[in-house]
Amino acid sequence: MARLAVMLLQASRLVPFERSVPHGLQVSGELIWNRDGQLELSFGVLAAAVSSLSELVVPDGLIDGPQVAGQRRDELWTTTCFEAFLAIPDQPGYWEINLAPNGDWASYRFEGYRSGQSQQPLDSAPEITLRRWHHQLRLDARLDLSSWWPNECCPELSLTTVLDRGANGISHWALRHGDSRADFHDRSTFLQA
């Protein structure tokens, strides 16, 4: 199947807000935005030591490959979760997409900074695939946003990750952070298209 015309391709290493993250732990995020509102996301977690990866809190019963049993669920961000924030340039509203390793997902619309939150329906559930190796976890997702995203409009964006390391705490990863706290909703941390 041929790939649709790409408007935006972003691949970056994400940085943790917390300083207590193990030195050998790395997170990356990639986004491909197609002209017709198709979004492809990829997130990778790489650990220098297998123990860093095995301490991640993830849903029980994970399988490698397509996550066909995923459902829409709220509060995915309270544990290991991969996220994308999208905004239309020069508009106060924005969208949040949450993806869990087991295929669970959520999408929200905000009218302004952390205000006016509502569920953003998707015409179909995201296609989510999980791959795990000794030192790496990778989540790939495809979402069709064409029914509500303006045609030919390239988003401002932020790619983020929450890693739940159990007794070792939660860490917040993003392309960049503000100064005082980890706040994925802060539009000043979004990349401008």
TrEMBL record:
It comes from the Bacteria. This is DOMON-like domain-containing protein. It comes from Parasynechococcus marenigrum (strain WH8102).
